[in-house]
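My current task is to audit a protein record that another person submitted. I have pasted the whole thing underneath without changing anything:
***
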Amino acid sequence: MEKLLTVIIPSYNVGKYLDKNIQSLVKENKNIDFLDVIIVNDGSKDNTLEIGRKYEKLFPNVVTVIDKENGGYGSTINAGVSKAKGKYLRILDGDDWVNTEHLENLLSFLEKCDSDVIYCDYEIFNEVTLESDYQKVCNLAPRIQYDYDQTKFIRIVMHGQLIKTSIYKDNHIKIDEHCFYTDTEYITFAVPYISTVTYFDESIYVYRIGREGQSVSEKGWNAHEKDHEIVINSLLKQYEELNPNISFYNYKREFLQQGLALEMKKRIYGYQLMYKENEKSYRKRLNVLDKLVISKCPEVRTIHIGKAYELFRKTNYNGVLMNLHKRLMSLR
């Protein structure tokens, strides 16, 4: 039976969550034989590997475990893609899970779909408040194939898409290793090769937030703040090498420009978090990075990323003005 969907599970010290993650894929899933689940253990120090091996024995035709030395998020994606058998790819972080019933429906739909990318709704689950927030990713008519240029204003997000495996394998796409925040690369590196899009109108992915130690937490930002510079430089390299002969060239340039602008916004956000600790050195690095981005992609200047961020850019990231703005906002 053809494998329709490879689910790569990057796993580092997620033993506390992995049972729920894998069970959401395999338990009472009538279409389980269409699944190819790859658990990539990235040098975990807890029982992550043990749990993965348990499911590999229980579902030998569905679950595969890759056990490797720690190499960071991008390395788990690269390892998973190299072994992927499915027609489509989805990344499922080890502490998240899927809606099993909707996944069954998606697998049935994939039998007759051939678009390069499939957008899917998703949910955000807050571990602190225990509340879920439904995320509708677009307003396209569902289950209809569109040309990419018809959907150019839709921003692809990690939790809301599937991408054809062949796009990564045929174009030898590799994600930066030993680096956080490479989910941006996973999406953006594929964009030049996308021609068709379909929207599947059910939520598949449940994204957990509020967990201590997540890379998107304040503690995580402080520990890995330099990784944003690595990602930005990788996006700049891709932007410079974008082939003008590819289909929808201008629209794809716009997507990459927006991606660079958003990454700079994240970098500025990191400055806000770390301002009190090393304001001078951080401000200098941010200025150098900003000038580099604008020199290679001047369009970034014209992309709106929020009034506060644009103010900081115009004042060369003046920390005093930044704090004043934050105080004024808190008084509203």
About this structure: Residues 26 and 32 are 6 Å apart (CA to CA).
